Amino acid sequence: MPILLDYCFACIAQMRYLGLVVAATKWYKQRSSNSLYRTHYMHIHILGICGTFMGSLAILAKELGFEVSGSDTNVYPPMSTQLEAAGIELIQGYDPEQLDRGADLIVVGNAMSRGNPAVEYMLNRGLPYVSGPQWLAEYVLKGRWVLAAAGTHGKTTTSSMLAWILEYAGLTPGFLIGGIPGNFGISARLGNEPFFVIEADEYDTAFFDKRSKFVHYQPRTAILNNLEFDHADIFEDMAAIRKQFHHLVRMLPGEGLIVAPQADDNIRQVLAQGCWTPTEFYGEPEAGDAANWHVVSLKPDGSEFEIMLNGVSQGIVAWNHTGRHNLNNAVAAIAAARHAGVMPEHAIAALCEFKGVKRRMELLGEVGGVTVYDDFAHHPTAIASTLEGLRNQVGTARIFAVIEPVSNTMRMGIHQAKLGQSSAAADQVLWYQAREVDWDFQQVIDACPGAAQRYSDIDQLINDLCQQTGPGDQVVIMSNGGFGGIHQKLLQALREHHAG
Questions:
Q1: pTM of the entire predicted model
Q2: Cα-Cα end-to-end distance for the chain
Q3: Torsion of Cα atoms, 75 then 77 then 79 then 85, to 10°
Q4: Mean pLDDT over all residues of the chain?
């Protein structure tokens, strides 16, 4: 059977390259091995439902026809509003009584740990449970052509681009993304067979399964965007992260595809451990590398660029996004889509209409000439590349970076030495030190090339920002958490300030 499936996949790919997309998809959907349309009715209860992954999983389960409920303690938009709109019951907290409401299966998020009252109740009662990635693999991904975007940075944006390219080509892919793409307005859907795009996170699966989530997905097409040290709460060092990524590489079929950056040494080391899958590399032509794909920036801010494949121009992307990181995300998505049969010129046309992702340099509004953005920024490299992209876009306009270093890794102080320099493209940085960040912040302040100040009170930060900003200024709020609701508070404060 596996040999036959591989042969069938190869046939589909060949038919797509010949342009017979509709015929290939129709044939594939007639296969009976996929469990997607053979699931029986079930009530699942999700512990940790408001995380980006688990919330998206809940949407898919609801679409499959499952009764879905869930609980969490950290509930804030956009995931909470998306779940409520889907008619999914949300329970605040982890009172064990929620597990006595007739759920057939408990899906456990990776934020759950031993000692959690609901987890302890579940284990003591012997209730059936499963991790989110395993549930996804068994009920959604089985038998599908999975396209996975992995790496330290850009997973959400790249998977959003890839899903949109396939959608633009008429393939109606399923997807699960750790954010809400502007072109779809939702973070997950089943879509049509065969294609399913997934943001492939290297974080651990569950308290009872310490493998990375992505080992459950068994992709056929894999993007390895980049690789840096992160998630210090679960990985001891870079070698441990590379080991998990090599687990992913070992699972890819010989007729699959890996898309990776030419210049990333950590990814090179992963592939050097053994690779049995064709790999297409992307890079910068000025670097003189031997990559298959090259991106030629035509504007300093990255809003226009040319895609080259084996030295031949495939077309030009002109869009509203900035930063070298987004150019790399784009070329990786184009290469992965080509493996699924979408020609580069169609992928390029799709990206010209790409609307971005919520909380990835999302424009929140303009008040009194002050432009305010929201960005997820979870790592010094992401902070630096985002601010550099904005600097190239706005020229000499003043940039105010409002940064809350609240990821697990940054809370531990792992990136303390790099944080200050990461803000170099900003004119002024307002650092917010949350209570969970208990290390000395002075080193960060001292390392900032521009003006910098530390805050422990959000209201004071907002007040100072209102006093300091004026027409033409750019404000970027950077955090991968809720940041105390600062986004709408700032917009309202600016309205009141300028109205007065």
A1: 0.80
A2: 72
A3: 110
A4: 86
